[in-house]
Each structure stands twice: as C-alpha cells, then as structure tokens.
TrEMBL record:
GO molecular function: ubiquitin protein ligase binding
Name of the molecule in the record: Cullin
UniProt cross-references to Gene3D superfamilies, sorted A to Z: Cullin Repeats (1.20.1310.10), Cullin, Chain C, Domain 2 (3.30.230.130), Winged helix-like DNA-binding domain superfamily/Winged helix DNA-binding domain (1.10.10.10)
Superkingdom of origin organism: Eukaryota
Stretches that traverse the bilayer: none
Keyword Manganese in annotation: no
Family of this protein: Belongs to the cullin family.
InterPro entries: Cullin, Cullin-like_AB, Cullin_homology, Cullin_homology_sf, Cullin_N, Cullin_neddylation_domain, Cullin_repeat-like_dom_sf, WH-like_DNA-bd_sf
Signal peptide residue numbers: none
Length: 840
C-alpha cells in the first residue's frame, strides 16, 4: 500500500511587536492633535482620522496605555503652560488683602487686584474646559470600550479634574514663586478673593458679577474626585461652608451696629433688603443651591439674634408701631417673624400684652373723663327725656345720664380698638389664624376683667337701636349689628348680658323705641351665635307683642259693637305679657319686692270699668287666665283743657288751650285726680300716694316728669325744686302753654341707665340664684346620663356644658353638689373617694 506524504504549510514570520508599532504612530497623531487643540490651531484637524486612531489603539487592547498617556500629557501641559500665568497673578499683596486681610490697601486696589486674579483663573478654566470637550470627542471610543468596562472615570472627568488637582489644590511656596514669602493653596486664595468681593458688594461697591458667576459655576462643575458624586461638588464641599461662615460673621457685626445706631424701622427695612439682595445674589452671582442656606444665616444673625431688643425699642419698637399704625413696619415685621418662627411667639406675646394694656387704659380713661356736659348730638341715653329739656341750653347731664354716656364711650372705645387691630391683622399680618386667636383671647381677657362689660354691651345695643336705623343704609345697620355680635362673642358672663338685654329690649318694645325688624334681626344673629336657649325669652317677648297687637284689634272691634257711647270713645292698646318672658322690673316687681308682696295701685273708676270690660272680653276664650295690670309699664294719651287766664288779653294765655299729653299710666292716674279739684286747691305728695297707692319711687318719678320738666310742666310744685320730696304739694298749672299741640312727658321708666352699686349687687345676687338653678339642672342631667361619676369628671363636664352661657366657679359647683346630696338627688359611693351616684 502506498503511503501519502503530508505537506506542512509554509510558516510566515510573525510581525514583531505589531501592537507596539500600531500604537506609536496613532499616539503621535493624537498627541500632535492635542497640542494643536491647546494652541488654538485645530482648524486643519480631521475628526475622522483622529477618531480612527483612538479606535485602532483601543481595538489593539491598548486603551489603558492611551488613557494614561492622555492624562500624563495634560498634567505636563498644566505644569508648563497653565500654572505659570496664574502663579504670576498671585502676589504678596493679593495674599495680604485676601487671606491675611492686612489694612492699608484702598477698596479700588483690592477690587482690581482680586478681579484680575479671578479673570486669570476664569480664562484658564474656560480654555481648559473647551479643550477637554474637544479631546473627549476624539476619545469617544475610549470611553465607550475601555472606561465603561473598567469602571474608571471618563476621559473628560479625568482630564477636567486636572484643573482641580493641578490648579486649585496647587501649593505655591516661596521656592517656586520668588515674590511669595509663605506657602499658600490657590483654592484658599480664590475663596478669600471671592468672599472679599461679595462683602464689597454688600457694602455698596460695584463688582463684576458675571466674573464671580463664572468662578462659582466652575466650582459647581468640579468635584472632590473623578467619580463626580453629586453631593461632592467643590462648590458644596469647600466654597459654600466658607461663604456661609463668612456671611455669619458679616451679618453678626452688622446686627450689632444696627442695635447701636438705628431704630426698629430701619432694622426691619434693612433685614428685608438683605434677604432680597442675597436671593438676587444667589441667582446672578453665587448659586441657587445656597439660596435657602444664606437666608437662614440672615434670619439667625440679623433677625433673631436681637429681635427682643428691637421689639422693645422705645418709640420705634412694636409698641410704637401699633400705637402709630405703622402698617409697613408691621407688615415687614410679620414677614420676618413668619420666616424664623411659625408659632409667632415673639409677636404674639407682645401683641397680647399691648392689647391688654390698651384695654385697661380705656377703663382708666373712662374714670378720668367728665361726662357732666352732654356730647354733641344729644344725650348718651337717646331717650324721650331729651324732648323735655331745652336743647338750646347746654344743661349738665344727670348722674344716671353721665353713667350711661360713660358706658357708650367704653363700648365705642373698645370697638375702635378692635377695628384698629382688625385692620392690622388684615393689612399687616396676612390674616394669620395664630395671631387672630391671640388677639381674640386678649380682647376677651380685658373685656371680662371689667365687671360691667355685660351691662355696657347691652346699653350700647340699646343706644344704637333706640336712635333709630331708618336714617342708616342696610350696610350701616348690618355693621352696627355685627359689632354688637363681636362684643357678645368676647363675653364669658353671657347670662348677665341676657338679663340686661332682656330689660332693655322690654323697654324698647313697650315704648316703641326701635324698629321691630331690626330687633328681630339682632336676636336672630344672637340665636345663630349662642343657640336657641339663649334667645328663647327674647323671641317670647316678640310673640307677646304680635299677639297683643291682634288682641287689641279684636278688642276695638268688640268695643265698636257695644252700645255704650262713653266706652266707644276710649281707644285702648293692650300688651298682654307672659310673666316668664319679661324682666321683673318691667312686670312691676322691683328689686326689693317679693312676688307675693306686690300692691296694685288704685285706678280711677273710668279706667277700672275699662279694665273690667277688657278682662271680661279676654276671659271669654281663655278661661282660667289671670291678668295683673302693670301700671308702671304703660302709657296714656290725655286731652287736657287749660282755661283762659283772667287779666290776660293777648298771647296764648288769653284764650282756652287744648293739648294732647302723652304720659305714663301712673301719670294718667295722677292727672285725673286734678279733674275734681277746685281752682287754687292742691294735693300733697302723701295725699296722692294714699289715694292712688302708687309705689313711692314710681310716684316721685312721675310727679317729677309732670312738674319739673319745662315742656311738660302741667302741675305746679311747692316749693319748686329739681327733686320731689314727700312734703311737696302739687296743683294744676292753669298758666301752662306750649307751641306744640301734642306734648310728650319724659318717660322716666324708658331710660336705659347704668345700674348703681346697690342695683348692681342686687342684679348679681339674682343672677347667682339663677346660676345655682342652671348648675343644678346641668348636674342632674349629666348624672342621669352617666349614673355614676367622679367629682373631677363631673365638675369638668358641668364647666364644658355651661361654657357657652357663663363660666361657673368651682366653689359654686361644689356647693350645688352638696345641696343635691342633701336633697337626695345624688349619693356618695361607699368605699370610693369623691364618686357620686344618681338616685332616680
């Protein structure tokens, strides 16, 4: 068998160091191109050829070598070409004014020297950044195939970081730089120069903002390492901390100077200006990254550091701002405090203190004001007694009228103060709810410190409603009612207000002193604010008046059907009042009079017949009802005839005179006594009292209205004086004359006046009795629902339930619990301390 010979292929000689031979020409091409890029001679370079060269190197697995060579080239370039020009800019003078801050250099020289240095750094950075971008484009495949796989920084990151390592972190020493005497790091000099220029601008000098923006942008683009971690920017890690620290020192010194040399208003405007400046500086010069942090520095060092001292400054502090309505100052102050303390503690405390001071000052001024002379526009009480006084003569007010005028002034002053702080709250404090609560609490505190506040608020409403709302627009009427409700919200003793308001409302309704629609509107607002229980009696009074109006019409129809001519001549208007709805004073029960001791006055026979007629008519459809006539609450129109006065030939007294006189019911009874009296005869006070059985106090008031008031002096009093005494005698005034056909005698009982001390004590005593019953009811209601409850829990629930009506005293609650225990509504639980059980 023949064997085949196997032929071996011809072995070609291997290319010795082929990879090395490929790297050298490619690197030479790239290096030459990099030199052209740095020397601004890159116009003739071919990007395609350069990219192919770097591609070929990386493809031959020489990426690491190319990466190292590029970095080495750039480092050498920095050492030989970039650093020397910058080093020449750093002189001992520059270091002295920036790092050492040695004196003796003018502001202009400092600015010029610093900006020249920064321009050198900026120009080097701009050129380096541009060059590195072009080189990174050429080395694109190196980043894609080598650095990405080996997880090394990109060629751009590695080369751009050379500026950080070989420029900013470079240490200049005396050996390397002949003009220097010490070692310094370039970055420290750069930071110091930038901060110095910023402080110059803060002091009012003009600097190159665009230059500083380039420098800070450079620091934002550079990182601590080539890994380029976001929170490790040189701006955040090196420059910003120094900037904030330098700013703290600057503003701390500035605050000390403002405390020493300026007032609070100047400080406020300066703080606001600095905040605006720093915000603008961050946007145009530094970096928006620092905006919130530098604002915090100003808030801490310029606002909060000496806030208490500025607010307490005499004349220009918060007290002066409030007293002089410095709207702009207070607006700035609110904005500043809102930034540093959302709780508003400094502003809140001072506001509350000032409101309390001004409120107590109102009370103090009230005691020092002379109310003996009536104010322009009439007396403070606004009642019909003014019709009986000659307005042409400025006569002094009575003690009661002075007290009422004081009450109205107190309320007006409180409302003026409230308007003032409402205006501040709206225009300065941006309707801040925290401050609103503080203002409300302060007003409530000082209003309730004044023990007559409930009475005065009721008198204020009474005065405004009696003056009439017909001349006011609907908006003005609403404003008055709203003010009243505002004051009512502040009162804690609302049960006392209810008692006074019931008395004043009764007089307005019975004497037709106000508009009924406005009265109902007022009560409706109270119901919305306080609940139905608070206004139930007021609404009952309105219902009585409406039913009485219908009842009077029906009675008049009944009279017209009668055949009695005399009865037909009488026009009777009846108000049938429900006892529980109306105050005791109006119902004829005086403060010192018990229910069972009331004495009915003696009515004239004609009036008595009329009463019997109405009573019979009333009981026709209402069997079992009892009517009690209240002489102190009604009025009567009487036709009076005054004879010709002998010896008078001219003037009104020369002929017979007829007038229609409007008097109280008691006044009518008194005048009818003089019908049967012979001319020249008189009746003594005691005789009138014995005949009519009118209570002495009411008799004195009515006789005074008929014998003292000039325009209604139909009786003559002997001896004549301004007060009625039990020894006085009265006779018919035949020489009475008036220009008016209809005369209204002063309705003394319609005057709403401030209570005297004795009346006040009696009102408080009655109110305490009522409170005892209300607390009893609350305790029983709570215990009936809970069955068993501890003393503390029961007390807390009672206070909570009654808070909208009044604030019960703990001692009174304890007393009422003891009383209910004695009356066996409650019992103590054996074996447990202060625990009660409800007894059904």
């Amino acid at each position: 068998m023949a064997s085949r010979a196997r032929m071996k292929p011809i072995r070609r000689p291997a290319a010795k160091n082929r990879e090395t031979s490929d790297f050298e020409p490619c690197w030479h091409l790239l290096r030459s191109a990099m030199i052209d890029i740095h020397t601004k001679n890159a116009g003739g370079l071919s990007f395609e050829a350069l990219y192919r060269a770097s591609y070929k190197i990386v493809l031959r697995k020489k990426g690491e070598l190319l990466y190292t060579e590029v970095k080495s080239f750039e480092e050498a370039w920095f050492r030989d070409h970039v650093m020397p020009p910058i080093a020449e800019l750093i002189t001992n003078n520059l270091i002295n004014i920036s790092l050492i801050q040695a004196p003796g250099t003018s502001l202009h020289e400092r600015r010029q020297m610093g900006e020249k240095f920064l321009r050198g750094v900026r120009d080097a950075w701009v050129e380096h950044n541009l060059n590195m971008n072009m080189i990174a484009d050429v080395m694109m495949y190196l980043d894609r195939a080598y650095t990405a796989e080996t997880k090394q920084p990109s060629i751009f990151a590695a080369t751009i970081g050379l500026f950080r390592d070989h420029i900013l972190r470079n240490t200049l020493s005396a050996s390397s730089q002949e003009q220097l005497t010490h070692e310094f790091i370039v970055f420290d000099i750069l930071n110091a120069v930038v901060l110095d220029l910023i402080n110059m601008e803060r002091d009012g000098d003009i600097i190159d903002r665009n230059l500083l923006k380039k420098i800070t942008s450079m620091l934002e683009d550079l990182y601590e390492t080539d890994e380029e971690i976001d929170d490790q920017k040189l701006y955040l890690r090196v420059f910003e901390p120094r900037y904030l620290q330098a700013s703290k020192a600057f503003y701390r010194r500035e605050c000390e100077r403002l405390v020493r040399d300026s007032d609070a208003g100047t400080w406020l405007r300066h703080c606001r200006r600095r905040l605006i400046e720093e915000s603008d500086r961050c946007g145009t010069t530094i970096s928006l990254l620092t905006s919130e942090k530098i604002s915090k520095v100003i808030e801490t060092e310029l606002v909060m550091a000496k806030l208490g001292e500025f607010l307490a400054m005499e004349g220009s502090g918060l007290k002066g701002m409030i007293d002089n309505d410095r709207i702009e100052d207070l607006s700035i102050l609110y904005e500043l405090i809102a930034r540093v303390d959302p709780s508003m503690a400094p502003l809140k405390a001072t506001l509350q203190s000032r409101i309390m001071e001004l409120g107590l000052e109102i009370e103090k001024n009230l005691k020092n004001t002379d109310f003996s002379v009536p104010a322009n526009g009439g007396g403070a009480d606004g009642d019909d007694g003014a019709d009986a006084v000659d307005k042409a003569k400025a006569q002094p007010l009575t003690v009661a009228a002075q007290q009422t005028a004081a009450a109205i002034k107190w309320v007006d002053d409180v409302l003026t103060l409230k308007d003032k702080f409402d205006n501040l709250w709206s225009n300065c404090f941006q309707e801040d709810l925290v401050l609103q609560s503080s203002i409300t609490k302060s007003f409530s505190d000082f209003i309730n410190v004044f023990n007559r506040s409930s009475e005065y608020v009721s008198l204020f409403i009474d005065d405004n409603l009696k003056r009439g709302t017909k001349s006011k627009t609907e908006a003005e009427v609403d404003a008055v009612l709203d003010k009243a409700i505002i004051l009512l919200r502040y009162l804690t003793d609302r049960d006392m207000f209810e008692r006074y308001y019931q008395k004043h409302l009764a007089r307005r309704l019975l004497h037709n002193k106000s508009d009924i629609d406005t009265e109902k509107d007022m009560v409706s607002r109270m119901r919305s604010e306080m609940g139905n229980a608070f206004t139930s009696k007021f609404e009952g009074m309105f219902k009585d008046m409406e039913l009485s109006k219908d009842l009077s019409e029906n009675y008049r129809d009944h009279i017209r059907q009668l055949g009695d001519v005399d009865t037909k001549k009488v026009d009777l208007g009846i108000h049938v009042l429900t006892t529980n709805n109306w105050p005791p004073e109006v119902m004829g029960r005086s403060a010192n009079q018990e229910e069972g001791s009331k004495v009915q006055c003696t009515y004239p026979p004609a009036v008595k017949r009329l009463q019997d007629s109405f009573y019979k008519f009333y009981l026709k459809d209402r069997s079992g009802r009892v009517l009690t006539w209240v002489g102190s609450a009604g009025t009567a129109d009487i036709k009076c005839v005054f004879p010709k006065v002998p010896g008078k030939e001219t003037g009104p007294l020369s002929k017979e005179r007829r007038y229609e006189l409007n008097v109280s019911t008691y006044g009518m009874i008194i005048l009818l006594l003089f019908n049967d009296l012979a001319e020249g005869e008189s009746l003594s006070f005691e005789e009138i009292q014995a005949t009519t059985n009118i209570p002495p106090q009411d008799l004195q008031r009515n006789l005074a209205s008929l014998s003292i008031a000039p325009k209604a002096r139909v009786l003559l009093k002997e001896p004549f004086s301004k007060s009625v005494k039990p020894t006085d005698k009265f006779s018919f005034n035949t020489q009475f004359a008036s220009k008016s056909m209809k005369i209204k005698a002063p309705t003394i009982t319609a005057i709403s006046k401030v209570e005297g001390d004795d009346e006040r004590r009696e009102t408080e005593r009655k109110n305490d009795q009522t409170r005892s019953h209300v607390i009893d009811a609350a305790i029983v209601r709570i215990m009936k629902a809970r069955k068993q409850l501890g003393h503390t829990a029961l007390t807390t629930e009672v206070i909570t339930q009654l808070a909208n009506r009044f604030k019960p005293e703990i001692s009174l609650i304890k007393k009422r619990i003891e009383d209910l225990l004695n009356r066996e509504y409650l019992e103590r639980v054996e074996g447990e301390t202060a625990v009660y059980r409800y007894l059904a």
